[in-house]
């Protein structure tokens, strides 16, 4: 049994070491990669560059350019301060992110090592944090979340240290509260949703010195509130708009359920061990900042239902879960967890025989490592595929004047172009009824944007990504056409005017207009662009047909297809949405140039039955009539 246990523990340590190496490898990839790796990076870099130039990053909703930071300024100020060292790109912010993750891991290690008096337990907890796929995905990015976590966790660590000493706290306003207050303020002014840590600190201090707890809350509230009012005054209300109004996104219960399911399926063993360790402390009436922080951090997971939330909302829960999981495992060494010796139900049944437990625990940890596994080939292939596309896109941007709307705002920033439209922010405002979209919709109608850049898949699943609205992509298809595809990027430019022609296909679909590559047919391929519109919500899938007929009415070429080759079926179209489709017809060489007809129509994909066209014998529309 001892040999088996030793072998299993060796596998655990090797697995943790491998996960650590993968995390550090991906961090290094991010530090050397010059382009955006995640949607949120580009806008953070834009605001950092603005701060470095002494410009404001908080604007009112109606202030052009339409981009206001929806994060407090600490992370961007620190990154701006690093600009002289790392340059104006992503490196400075990504260094901050990597350092923050390592600091949190170091704090986890120290807490668990002191609680269990076991270095290995501390190392286990720290490596579980660094090896978690959420941290792995986030560590190469220039985002504010890990930096905010480092400040919040640092404040919790200071309060925890005070709990252990309990000698410097006075019942009024102790100087010992000022340091954690500073950390919590830095956390809140890095990411304003990090309130779980200061709430836990207040609860822990309240249990031991009520007057000091209220003094702590008063200082934190007064300083934080004064700073908020000062920033709001200096930005003419832009600070309130950026942090509160533009962050009042839609709550999606189904998204919360999906996020929680992913978390539970990824970290079941970690979570079980954490609950075990936490419950042992509570049963022993050892309730302090760590125990309360676990409760507030997990309660805060409800915010993962906010539109746009993802793995970053789970960092606090993962960090404190690693603390209690490490302490629980350390209790099986046997090692002591503070003044309370953790003993599992298995140990009780075995009447003190730890040998079975020593084998069971590493087996479960190996299962947890298997569930946490991340394939490095995914990241490597992504970078290898996107790098040439980014370089080609940069060349496009260099020869294209502003204003440009881009889903990848980082591409604009690294090419020296201004971000004039924060796509997710203003699309969210439009969905909540706070923004009327006249600026961007009129701009599309007038061709005011020389280039619009979407990522592949966004046009067909706009409600999933939520970086644009249906109204935006509908107007885009009406007035713009895709001119190039560079890797994951789809580039749109103002399209030549359509030949407007109105026709209805039952009460389901309508013809808006069309444009052929040439007015007269020539041997070779004839390209036809047609803009369709949904007249109502469609429950069935329909296929469009384009037929080329000769002077006798015989069909000589055709192109039948569902929209976007079936990727964007009519069942996903919104009421009134316009969709531009391109059809290609092979023109026979012997077809006279002035003796052909183009007919279009729709039929049910499943039954083949055509949608009716009033006045047409074959339920089709002749283009040009």
What can you see in these coordinates?
- This protein is α+β, with helices and mostly antiparallel strands and 625 residues long.
- The chain has helices at 2-32, 39-52, 74-81, 83-86, 91-116, 119-131, 133-138, 145-165, 178-188, 196-208, 210-234, 238-245, 253-266, 268-283, 289-299, 315-330, 345-349, 355-371, 376-398, 409-414, 423-431, 438-446, 462-465, 470-479, and strands spanning 404-406, 451-455, 480-486, 489-494, 499-505, 509-516, 524-534, 542-550, 555-561, 578-587, 596-604, 621-622.
- The strands form 3 sheets. The protein has a 4-stranded mixed beta sheet with strand order 1-2-4-3. The protein has a 4-stranded antiparallel beta sheet with strand order 5-6-7-10, with helices on one face. Strands 9-8-11-12 form a 4-stranded antiparallel beta sheet, with no helix packed on it.
- Helix 1 (2-32) runs antiparallel to helix 5 and helix 8 runs antiparallel to helix 9 (178-188).
Most strands sheet = 4 strands, mixed
Give the strand content: 5-15%
Task: Note the total helix count.
Answer: 24
Please tell me how large the radius of gyration is.
Answer: 30 Å
| Count of individual domains | 3
Which structural traits does this protein have?
Coagulation Factor XIII, Chain A, domain 1; four-stranded mixed sheet; 12 strands; 625 residues; 3 domains; four-stranded antiparallel sheet; alpha+beta
Gist of the model:
The chain has helices spanning 2-32, 39-52, 74-81, 83-86, 91-116, 119-131, 133-138, 145-165, 178-188, 196-208, 210-234, 238-245, 253-266, 268-283, 289-299, 315-330, 345-349, 355-371, 376-398, 409-414, 423-431, 438-446, 462-465, 470-479, and strands at 404-406, 451-455, 480-486, 489-494, 499-505, 509-516, 524-534, 542-550, 555-561, 578-587, 596-604, 621-622. It has 625 residues and is α+β, with helices and mostly antiparallel strands. Strands 1-2-4-3 form a four-stranded mixed sheet.
